[in-house]
Structures are given as structure tokens and as C-alpha cells.
Write a structure and sequence with these properties.
Layout (H helix, E strand, L loop, with lengths): L9 H10 L4 H4 L2 H21 L11 E6 L4 E6 L9 H11 L13 H21 L1
Antiparallel strand pairs: 1-2
Helix pairs in contact: 3-5
Length: 132
């Protein structure tokens, strides 16, 4: 689906495993936190891409998928359409990281949007843990 920023999710995976022992009322509150975080990251990525004079048109192709029963999200530019082709994914890679023949690399790295949202998600998850 998307080229996505990533981070060390070891603690998040451990938290997800711990949730199997948590009351259902707490478990049910995690997917909305993940969705809210994914929406925020997507919005920042779209704003950054949209601000680019050269690559702004690609902003509309930045999406997210909620995975693992709502416990994870994959956020980024669409890699391929239903026919296996996407100008958006290729163009976004150039926008973020530059091309083999120069150019591009002018849109902030997607990792920055994830880093900006991570503290808010951590607080929200900590609040859930507090409910235990």
C-alpha cells in the first residue's frame, strides 16, 4: 500500500501483547487512538507534500491503512493502484529522497511526521494504561 516511515515498535508490540490480558473496555479504546494518530500523520504528510511546488499534486495520494485489528497503521503515498502502477508512489519517493539522476529530495522525510505524532500517541496509550 504505502511507503511508510517506521520506528522501533518493540515497546508497542509488547504493549499489544499485554493488551490480551487487559479488560475488553480498554482494548476497545486502542483502535481509535491508532486511527487518530494515523490521521494526524497523514495530514502532516499531505501538508508537507502539498507545499511543494514540484510535487504538491502528489499529496492526494497519501493515505493510511489500519492493520492488525486496529492496533497498527501504515501511512504514506500509495505504491500501486489496482493495476499495479502508481505515479504517486514513484514521484513521492523522488520528492522525499531524490532521484538517481539528481533532483527531488525537497519534501521533509516522512519520519518527521511520525516523530511529531509519537508523543501524543504515547500519552494517549499511557492514559489507557492508567485505566488498568
Amino acid at each position: 500500500m504505502a511507503d511508510s516511515a517506521s520506528f522501533d515498535a518493540h515497546e508497542l508490540r509488547q504493549f499489544a501483547a499485554d493488551l490480551t490480558r487487559a479488560p475488553q473496555r480498554v482494548v476497545d479504546k486502542v483502535p481509535p487512538v491508532v486511527k487518530r494518530g494515523a490521521t494526524q500523520v497523514k495530514a502532516q504528510l499531505r501538508a508537507e507534500m502539498g507545499a511543494s511546488p514540484s510535487f504538491g499534486v502528489l499529496a492526494r495520494g497519501i493515505t493510511y491503512d489500519i492493520l492488525d485489528g486496529g492496533f497498527t497503521a501504515e501511512i504514506g503515498p500509495v505504491k500501486a493502484d489496482r493495476h499495479g502502477k502508481s505515479v504517486i508512489g514513484v514521484g513521492a519517493n523522488i520528492a522525499y529522497f531524490g532521484g538517481a539522476h539528481g533532483g527531488g529530495g525537497t519534501v521533509p522525510d516522512p519520519q518527521g511526521a511520525l516523530d511529531a505524532e509519537a508523543p501524543r500517541m504515547e500519552r494517549a496509550i499511557a492514559d489507557l494504561i492508567g485505566e488498568l
